[in-house]
Design brief:
This protein has 88 residues and is an all-alpha fold. The chain is 78% helix and 0% strand.
Length: 88
């Protein structure tokens, strides 16, 4: 497979080799793919977790287990006020 890099990406790859951390282009590309795979894996886990939390939240709503928005906002404002006082 042959790929073309933009001048910026090519310079980035070359700078990584020049830094001594990588010995050749293949190592830089392999590291980039490894990071991409890790990122995709983390995203998949986050997405699954978020979907589960949404499902739990929807079931709570169906059961009437909801909080008044105004009460929650006021509680958050109070916590923020207390935090600011503690930092001062």
């Amino acid at each position: 497979m042959s790929i073309s890099l933009s001048p910026e990406h090519e310079q980035f790859v070359l700078s990584k080799i020049q830094s001594g951390r990588y010995t050749d282009v293949e190592q830089v590309i392999a590291a980039a793919f490894q990071l991409l795979e890790e990122q995709e894996s983390q995203y998949t886990l986050w997405l699954e977790d978020t979907r589960k939390k949404v499902e739990v939240g929807l079931k709570e709503i169906e059961r009437g287990e909801v909080l008044d928005t105004e009460v929650v906002i006021n509680q958050l404002k109070e916590k923020l006020r207390q935090k600011r006082e503690n930092q001062a």
